Amino acid sequence: MKVTRDLFNEVMVPNYNPAAMIPVKGQGSRVWDQTGTEYIDFAGGIAVNVLGHCHPELVAALKEQGEKLWHLSNVLTNEPALRLAKKLTDATFAQRVYFANSGAEANEAALKLARRYALDVYGESKNQIIAFNQGFHGRTFFTVTVGGQAAYSDGFGPKPGGVDHVDYNDLAALEALMSDNTCAVMMEPLQGEGGIIRPTDEFAKGVRALCDKYNALLIFDEVQSGVGRTGELYAYMGLGIEPDILTTAKALGGGFPIGAMLTTTKIAEHLKVGTHGSTYGGNPLACAVAERVLDIVNTPTVLDGVKHKEQLFRQGLEAINQKYQCFSEVRGQGLLLGCALTEKFAGRSREFLVAAADEHLMCLIAGANVVRFAPSLIIPDEDIKAGLSRFERAVAKVVNG
């Protein structure tokens, strides 16, 4: 069968509009399309391919497990899931893990757990969930309602109730909304889709303090910021506070679908047998791959390397901007970076993305005003330099019309 981009329009639901080229092979931070054209990957599958494409150790883990066990129902447990859970709890604040298949599912579990905990411990009136405008927590109806972008949640009928939003980094607004009826505050410790926004130190610590004051659970959505992305294993570690529940996915599987919700023993016990579940959650294939990802990423070599590579990106982007004056700032942390466009180029981030693709560079956007980079954490320095020179050619095309 001849596979072309036109086939997409014939057979797929039109909720995506993918690029004209179809990738067929990846190695490290490079990708090749059907014609053999090579691209440098600064997108990382949206912060997923944390160790690049086809990392030999991940390929080996998948092959090895693939010849042992693929799937078991949750009537049984399995060794890779238990080993991965132990490594996650050893490396974080958490004592208990629930496995799912995606970030949305991990967030769904976190929100259900927070509601159930509040109901059991404090009663029915404690059900308010507060999240932040421009936040993103997934596409299930509950998580997309909690996410702070109406464009994603409107148009599907009545939404789940008891959900309120305030602006990120606005501690006073959060304080005004919180009460003894607040069961949870959900936030990204580094906003991704909302424009690569870091929390101020005062805000992060203030949110934790308000949750303590009102006996509300603090849920950190680390689906995009976790697993080494910021140069810490999880972003909360650089903020000097701990959440009550943390969700992780994307990079956790290095490209193989897996999600996890992490929490404490005290909170976890409220998801008793039968209260929540997942057919594929914790399957041996996903957990075997994720275990290798965690082993590799959670090392000083990789985590310190992220901070070094961030500086290479920042220096290169600063040099480009000195010539073309199109970015107001470079935002973010580690290898989740965003170039915020100046007023002159407002609303045109997609033009930069398309121009980059024409120069054989894969990048991302975070809204209409931010060009986003989320490459492999082990992208070679020479690929960063080569990719930035391609990006400079793309910027020149957009700026010079």
UniProtKB/TrEMBL annotation:
It catalyses: N(2)-acetyl-L-ornithine + 2-oxoglutarate = N-acetyl-L-glutamate 5-semialdehyde + L-glutamate. NCBIfam families: arg_catab_astC, argD, PRK01278.1, PRK05093.1, PRK12381.1. The keyword Cell cycle does not apply. It is found in: Cytoplasm. N(2)-acetyl-L-ornithine binds at R139, S278. It comes from Paraglaciecola hydrolytica. The gene is argD. This is Acetylornithine aminotransferase. Belongs to the class-III pyridoxal-phosphate-dependent aminotransferase family. ArgD subfamily. Gene3D superfamilies: Aspartate Aminotransferase, domain 1, Type I PLP-dependent aspartate aminotransferase-like (Major domain). Pfam families: Aminotran_3. Keywords: Amino-acid biosynthesis, Aminotransferase, Arginine biosynthesis, Cytoplasm, Pyridoxal phosphate, Transferase. Pathway: Amino-acid biosynthesis; L-arginine biosynthesis; N(2)-acetyl-L-ornithine from L-glutamate: step 4/4. The modification N6-(pyridoxal phosphate)lysine is found at K250. May also have succinyldiaminopimelate aminotransferase activity, thus carrying out the corresponding step in lysine biosynthesis. One of its GO terms (biological process) is L-arginine biosynthetic process.
